Amino acid sequence: MAHDIIxxxxxxxxxxxxxxxxxxxxxxxxxxxQILLDFPRYFFNEHCTPGSEWIKFTRRKVPTDRLWTSTDxxxxxxxxxxxxGGRHSLGIGRHWHFFAAILWVINGGIYVLLLxxxxxxRRLIPTSWAVFPDAWHTFLTYISFHIPPLSAFRPxxxxxxxxxxxxxxxxxxLVIATGLAMSPAIAGRFxxxxxxxxxxxxxxxxxxxxxxxxxxxxxxxxxxxxxVHAGDNFGNMVFGREDYLEGLAIGIxxxxxxxxxxxxxxxxxWSQRAPRAVQxxxxxxxxxxxxxxxxxxxxxxxxxxxxxxxxxxxNGIPPTVEEWLKLAQGSFSEYAVEVHxxxxxxxxxTLADLRxxxxxxxxxxxxxxxxxxxxxxxxxxxxxxILQQCQPLPQARYVIFHSYQxxxxxxxxYDSLTIAEAxxxxxxxxxAMNGETLPMNHGAPLRLRMETKLGFKMVKWIxxxxxxxxxxxxxxxxxxxxxxxxxxxxxxxx
Length: 494
Ligand SMILES: Nc1nc2c(c(=O)[nH]1)N[C@H]1C(S)=C(S)[C@@H](COP(=O)(O)O)O[C@H]1N2
Ligand SMILES: [Mo]
Fold this sequence. Notes:
binds molybdenum atom, five-stranded antiparallel β-sheet, 14 strands, elongated, binds the ligand Nc1nc2c(c(=O)[nH]1)N[C@H]1C(S)=C(S)[C@@H](COP(=O)(O)O)O[C@H]1N2, five-stranded mixed β-sheet, alpha+beta, 17 helices
């Protein structure tokens, strides 16, 4: 048996998937760091109340005397560590993260499949309890700075076998599972799923801890490969045979690793110089997968009042345009939302008109792209009902929500939903939050709620609603303000 296992060798597919894995895992780690540091507070409870973190990478106290938004939390990341580097560049970081994740799952899937089909699994999955005491023995050998003899490797020593099996069959699946638990589409449709990890914030914290575990593994793994019988290891990795042209094997391995570094530098530079192209190219792949699996999911959230978050972060600064300030001064008695574009009947709806329609109330979890979340009760009118009133023309495909709010350069905030998404049961125009009139910072007098998407889709301070055939002519044509300016993906289901 032992003989068999050794003579399985290291087939070409194993060497190729191993090599690709090096490139992909570093894409995942670097973009992951970029994403995690955009909101550098981590919680083991459902809410994100400042002060209740178990760990944070910021010394900042959230000020209480002025408006502090979640964007203010973002930390700058060196491009040597993060991908793409910079401050609040999680749009491109996320594109790489999901693009790499898709490739990593395919590569890992091929590896595991072939592992199972070719019998190579026997090297990883222990078939005897003896592996545990043996692994302990090996551990004692290493920790006393000794190296087990070559005969202890079949081809892995027992500690290696256990570690590799745990990384491939436990850590890998867990990091994927906790990643998916952060998707608002999955959590919205299957609220029980993130609860498996005690909620979205705990899933995020675990995802972070698994990143640390991967980093630790990489460091120890690489160190041991170099220290313990290096010639054999490089022979196996490069030629699939130990004790074979060791010098050449090491040369090829160094060259291959240099290619990984060059690849990463290229990806980083490309991201910095042509973020729109990166958004398009990686987005084409990512959005296809999301459209297929995540965008048909409809929210079925019904949290209890007792679960409402005591603290709800704010993102975005209230409008400064005259019109909105005037409306606010008059307590929005003059406010009306215009519904226009490709519609049979344009509408002009005052708050009184909206309040006269049937009230939809939902208690849901809001997921910001930066990582924080919060549970709140929202009341308003269903967008479906508005669409029934205005009757979209057959060529209308998207609903655009325009805001009164503009950025420092005067660009107005807006975002889009497909007509189908706009008609989901929990897509509403909210005028109340937690039983009170919608507060100023949360989008007064009217904001969108769409409960399978990330927060940036939920336009606050709504000015008008426009039905269009496509959104190319609006803003910079990407489907929303943050899609235009921060390269977010318009699907926003994860
Ligand atoms: N007009 C406008 N709407 C906006 C934003 C904004 O900056 N301007 N930020 C979005 C983002 S990124 C999030 S997470 C949510 C935050 O909603 P909240 O401030 O009520 O928590 O609003 C979204 N709607
Ligand atoms: Mo957000």
